[in-house]
Design a protein that fits this description.
about 130 residues, mainly beta, globular
Length: about 130
């Protein structure tokens, strides 16, 4: 079973930037094998799909982050990234990286809408944006 370990969360002011990372620790595990993405959960709210990248590298984003966030992966380093620019207080949440390691696999937009379709999750990293 792979382990996903996030890092990079911090407290920043509105307009600032952060880059989140997620390392997959299992031997033989590569992000290009599975649909993967970032999901966030703010206090008192449901988990929200933020960005996804499918096995061939196509990306999708929630409307709330389009133009500000960029998802990418480095297969050689087994690392998934989320570059977050122009951060807003509404971006404050616990951010998880997630993967779906069991077929059937779905479209990127499906994982954005139904993030619980992922079956493997990291422990989360906190992002706090102050105004």
């Amino acid at each position: 079973q792979e382990q996903l370990v996030e890092s990079g969360g911090d407290s920043v002011q509105s307009g600032g930037s952060l880059r989140l990372s997620c390392v997959a620790s299992a031997s033989g595990y590569t992000y290009s094998s599975y649909p993967v993405g970032w999901v966030r959960q703010a206090p008192g709210k449901e988990r929200e799909g933020v960005a996804t990248i499918d096995r061939v590298g196509r990306t999708s984003y929630a409307d709330s982050v389009k133009g500000r966030f960029t998802i990418s992966r480095d297969n050689a380093k087994n690392t998934l990234y989320l570059q977050m620019n122009s951060l807003k207080p509404d971006d404050t949440a616990l951010y998880y990286c997630a993967a779906d390691t069991a077929p059937p696999y779905y479209t990127s937009s499906y994982y954005l809408r139904y993030p619980r379709a992922y079956n493997s999750w990291g422990q989360g990293t906190q992002v706090t944006v102050s105004s």
